[in-house]
Give the backbone structure.
Amino acid sequence: MSNQIIFQIIQTATLVVAVFVAWVSIKKQRETIKKDKTISLLMKDLEYDFLESGMRTLRHIHHSEDDDVAIYANATHLQDEKAISIRNLLNYYENISVGIAADIEMIKKSQKLMIIAIYKQSKPFIIRLREQNKNPNLYIEFEKFIGILNA
């Protein structure tokens, strides 16, 4: 074999290796960016007043012997401040549940207990809301997400 053919083979092999390394690097970078964005979303959104308000409202109702979270799902409470607060909190976790599948381990480590507590405390509300709206799919992704967290 001539030196020119050997040089072309080495050059082609080097190019293939370089493309492979670049592909792996891009894939890893995308995974890192995705995790960073997830963390950023969780940390930023936890500061929002409506989330804090929703958690405070849900906790207060849950610990009250004279109140029931399920009644806030009734149509008569549609504009009630407490019902809106609970819906905002549930909507947030519904959205998180939809977008989080790839980063489940990170969520399990950082917020599992809080998310499960929110679900347990709001479950009567969710059930009543499903009945009122005749829609068994309300907050279904959040419910599935709880199953994943509990697994």
Summary: The chain is about 80% helix and 0% strand. The mean pLDDT is 82. Residues 1-33 form one domain.
